[in-house]
Amino acid sequence: RSGAFMAERARQVPGLDPLRDAALSFAASADDPASGGRHKVWGSRPLWVLPQTSTIASHLPKALGTALAIESGKRLGQPLPIPADSIVLCSFGDASANHATAQTAFNTAMWSAYQKLPAPILFVCEDNGLGISVKTPEGWIAERFSRQPGLDYYYADGLDLAAGHAQVQAAVEHCRRTRRPTFLHLRTTRLMGHAGTDFEVEWRALADLCAAEAQDPLLRSAQIALESGWMDAAGIEAAYETLRVRCLSAAADAEARPKLQSLDEVVAPLAPYTPAAVMAEAQRPVPAEAREALYGGADALPERQPPRHLAVQINHGLQELLCKYPQALLFGEDVAQKGGVYTVTKDLLRRFGPRRVFNTLLDETMILGMAQGLANMGLLPIPEIQYLAYLHNAIDQLRGEACSLQFFSNDQFRNPMLVRVAGLGYQKGFGGHFHNDNSITALRDIPGLVVGCPSRGDDAVMMLRTLSALARVDGRVAVFLEPIALYMSKDLHAPGDGQWLFDYPAAGQALVLGEGRVYAPDADDLVVFTYGNGVPMALRAVPAIQAQTGWQVRVVDLRWLVPLDAGFIA
Asked: What is the mean pLDDT of residues 218-234?
């Protein structure tokens, strides 16, 4: 279904050959302009077609996020990489429309329209009546979507070029003019199986197969050309044969083109990292006059205040980022007026306004989808996931979509973002299920992701500087894991000792990716490797260990959980 769209889209840009490009992709050639031979995906930088993974409907949230971001960018006065009147086209099948990830995008689209927020997206449901072998009930798509508030419904017959073209054009023009979410129900058919393993003759009645073949849009279009007198049979046959030869020639040429040969070549765009450029950006200070204006004078700057605990330092670090990057937006559940569940984002709304600090609906999938859309449009999203446990129902937006885009597009598309997640055990010890969650394994299993976890306030600020620089310079997707139990911690060994309060780090100080913090580096009897909550716990245990065994104890705060720096650990 997408091949015809790509061919027509390519006609709009001189010098592109969709047959050649498709053949290079199918042959896994290193010359493939979409992924560089890494995957057979549709995609094109000059056509602004972002390559997709195979996760069902996982692209709908970020497509809607991109539509919302077009309007956000205009409101913020930020330059867009596309024309201002652009709309987002997002296509999917009738079976995919039932998926929970699709439903979250439809719901948010309607939620936005209800509040009169522009969201110029054209959802195109390519309805062929089948999800592999499961039939879609007759009339279900029309019944489900034709009467949804805030989702403007259009129908088009994709099997009839003469009638369908005007119907499609009406939907496109409506979406572009009104900037409202629009649902185009496009009738299609499926010729041959869903995939190479789907032998339709084994499960589908011969009469059904014959009926599907009779709906072949190519044959129907040829019939229209004949009946209208536009072409005769010989002309149609010659055109078909000419294209067939072009396809076979493109395939033969693509097969002879070079392929990726080494692991390094394959993974090159997965996790780009330019240390010197990242550190230079992390150390680039915010102009002093801008910060003084933000805080109301030099004496009120956080570095001139007494040592503070983690929550306060994160708050000041976020203010620094929003001041440093005018394209940065902070959003999530309860982050605005309330200032977050633990007041970590307190005052950010007042200082930066509702266009840059705002609440979202309660839907982690859409929060991360919106972040990707904003990043697509050149903004720097800082989404908050309220608890680590809440991330799991939305984690494919990181694993399947955000962190794979640079890989599948050969680093032609990037969606840099800094995801804040509150987590780890905070009731007692290291925690367990639900809110009190320590399940970082799901994050550590995502290729290309960066995960940092500070245990103290000064490290948190310096880590935020580095993570935002990684996003801006190398387009990376980063998670900032905030230990809830340490937000308000002030003491280390005894109540009132204030040993877990720290100064705000000076401008220009940032962390090196992978480098941890070592306490008592000369102690060489026992080394404890830990992170987050475990750091003050280990430090509290050190005096008892020394008293009981006489051992000198070195404590290492890893700080960076993905990627782990094996050299530093060794």
From this structure: 93
